[in-house]
């Protein structure tokens, strides 16, 4: 679970800091930096997987375009991304700092290094007491024990990579999947049939069905089928008035919602789920219900029983007024408005347009928050049929 993101010099970010709760909605217009934030998180995590090749990983923009550019088109010399995370490791809860950076060498992007550090949860007053009390001293000790350090870092890196960037590709989600595939849902959803098949052996598929029926009312059942000879899973939905409909004939929107719910309910793979434009493929009238269902699945840091289970976090992006309306009413602390602002650096004679994040609160430094009055004013300009 990510608890804080700090970015400096990556794409549209300069000296950017954002505290991240278990459920977070980033709302704002196009080109406000919502996708760039996901790209920054991906870069930091890719550094764990690919090390020096992280700068070359498949993402939006060429390597040189990862570096922030000012209004004159001049890139910064280096960038850095730092994630503070809460991990549920075999020895207990641990606060981990993961960082990665890169710099330009003679105009050529070069991966610089990555860093993994241990945080003192007990001293972090921003966390609930129950979380601080569960901090594992074993993990702290292993950072000072050469014999155990490498194994601890391997476990940390494995936990850090339990992050799913979910756009969902309906074309891929319609396909069969191998019985041998025990992985979490892939970003494109190509192994959805295998995930559903695996979930069928537990109550998780029944729980998923309850949520799916609330969002797609015509659905009566999710059925999985294993081809023993080919060792491949397939699935179909039973729809009211239509009977059994194979995955190849399901709508894009239904498949995308089914994949999202599969990731949320997968009992074997928790972690962090990042979803861009959550409203895609879903009727606006069902969006508020989806948000409520998601919030029921994420970890409650104030609930000791929730901390006993694998940590689950969801971060979404949206430009839908329905998201603003629902979360302002029920969970305003989960609502962050993304916008851009002009920043002037007189020392370096730079003028830049940068991403800023504004939480909902009554007051603070100008330009760093959105007041409840401003939210109500915005919602007052939205047509009722959009809410």
UniProtKB/TrEMBL annotation:
Q: What is the species of this protein?
A: Actinomadura decatromicini
Q: Which PANTHER family match?
A: ATP-DEPENDENT ENDONUCLEASE, OLD FAMILY-RELATED, DNA REPLICATION AND REPAIR PROTEIN RECF
UniProt key word DNA damage: yes
Protein name as it appears in the record: AAA family ATPase
A family per Pfam: SMC_N
Q: Where is the ATPase AAA-type core domain?
A: 229-325
Q: What Gene3D superfamilies does the annotation carry?
A: P-loop containing nucleotide triphosphate hydrolases
The GO terms describing molecular function are: ATP binding; ATP hydrolysis activity
Q: Which UniProt keywords apply?
A: DNA damage, SOS response
Q: RecF/RecN/SMC N-terminal domain location, by residue?
A: 1-51
- GO BP of this protein: DNA synthesis involved in DNA repair; double-strand break repair; SOS response
Key word DNA damage present in the record? yes
Q: Which InterPro entries does its entry note?
A: ATPase_AAA_core, P-loop_NTPase, RecF-like, RecF/RecN/SMC_N
């Amino acid at each position: 679970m990510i608890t804080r993101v700090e970015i400096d010099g990556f794409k549209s970010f300069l000296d950017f800091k954002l505290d991240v709760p278990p459920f977070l909605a980033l709302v704002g217009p196009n080109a406000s930096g919502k996708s760039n934030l996901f790209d920054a998180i991906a870069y930091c995590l890719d550094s764990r997987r690919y090390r020096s090749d992280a700068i070359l990983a498949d993402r939006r923009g060429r390597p040189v375009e990862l570096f922030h550019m000012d209004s004159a088109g001049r890139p910064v010399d280096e960038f850095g991304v730092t994630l503070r995370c809460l991990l549920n490791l075999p020895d207990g809860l641990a606060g981990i700092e993961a960082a990665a950076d890169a710099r330009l060498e003679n105009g050529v992007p070069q991966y610089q290094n990555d860093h993994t550090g241990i945080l003192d949860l007990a001293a972090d007053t921003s966390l609930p007491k129950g979380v601080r009390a569960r901090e594992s001293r074993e993990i702290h000790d292993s950072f000072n024990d050469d014999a155990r350090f490498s194994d601890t870092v391997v476990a940390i890196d494995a936990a850090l990579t339990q992050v799913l960037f979910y756009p969902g590709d309906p074309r891929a989600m319609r396909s069969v999947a191998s019985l041998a595939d025990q992985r979490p849902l892939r970003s494109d959803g190509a192994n959805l049939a295998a995930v559903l098949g695996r979930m069928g052996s537990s109550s998780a598929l029944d729980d998923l069905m309850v949520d799916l029926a609330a969002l797609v009312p015509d659905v009566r059942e999710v059925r999985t089928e294993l081809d023993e000879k080919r060792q491949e899973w397939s699935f179909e939905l039973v729809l009211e008035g239509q009977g059994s409909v194979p995955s190849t004939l399901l709508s894009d929107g239904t498949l995308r919602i089914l994949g999202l719910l599969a990731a949320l309910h997968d009992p074997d793979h928790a972690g962090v789920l990042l979803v861009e434009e959550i409203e895609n493929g879903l009727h606006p009238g069902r969006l508020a219900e989806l948000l409520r269902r998601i919030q029921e699945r994420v970890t409650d840091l104030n609930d000791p029983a929730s901390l006993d289970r694998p940590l689950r976090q969801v971060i979404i992006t949206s430009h839908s007024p329905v998201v603003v309306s629902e979360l302002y009413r029920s969970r305003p602390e989960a609502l962050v408005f993304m916008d851009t602002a002009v920043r002037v650096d007189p020392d370096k004679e730079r003028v830049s347009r940068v991403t800023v994040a504004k939480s909902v609160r009554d007051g603070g430094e100008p330009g760093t928050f959105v007041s409840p009055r401003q939210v109500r004013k915005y919602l007052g300009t939205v047509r009722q049929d959009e809410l």
